[in-house]
User: Fold enoyl-CoA hydratase from Microlunatus soli.
Amino acid sequence: MTVRIERGDEHVAELVMDRPEALNAIDTQQGKAIAAACQELSADPTVRAVIISTALDKAFCVGADLKERNRLSDAELAGYRPVSRQAYAGVLGLAMPTIAAVEGYALGGGCELALSCDLIVASDTAVFALPEVGVGVIPGGGGTQLLSRRVGLNRALDLILTTRRVGADEAATIGLADRRAVAGGARAAAYELAAVIAAKSPVAIRDAKTAVRDGHDLPLADGLELEEARWQHTAFSADRAEGVAAFVEKRTPHWPG
Assistant:
């Protein structure tokens, strides 16, 4: 099994990539497995935060499996495209917060998987790059859109057009990574972060994510209307009633969710 789901404590689940012979390169089966895992996680009401991680020390994911791609005819490549899009859309579409735990190489589609997450934890060994224009294509897993939203238009163009690699220090400086971890420590750091998030109201967490994500590119007035709608949804929920009661009674809340 090249992709598996591991469920820990604190309502946190991990989608773990484990295809060591190809450094987690995404072939047809890997793409289908990622999409299926995301569907399973989406349907699980007990999961409040998701970590996307690797079982390998050397690589988070090195992107598309170019050995497989080299064997595909144009028609076969066109037929594969929906599989690829479903994999990235599966991660991007998860309603609960998502955290990429990056160890080693996050190249091409691997970088795009990380970009599809809400937060990125990079270990000292992390290396990010979008090398697609060097093999005659463009980033197609959301990279052209998600990278610019993270690091700004000009930095995104710099990275995409030059294909240069970015280490953990620079990634943190330019906003490509949100948190740092020691080598081998990305999963543990991501789990610690996910547990903090998962301890909060699951209704409020999802609505906050929706308001921030969906409102980011809206005019301010429209964004504020979206915020109002999400506030209304949380304000009259059982989670809000429990959260206020727990605060007044000085106890840990037990979220209805």
Notes: The longest strand covers residues 12-17. The two ends are 32 Å apart (CA to CA).
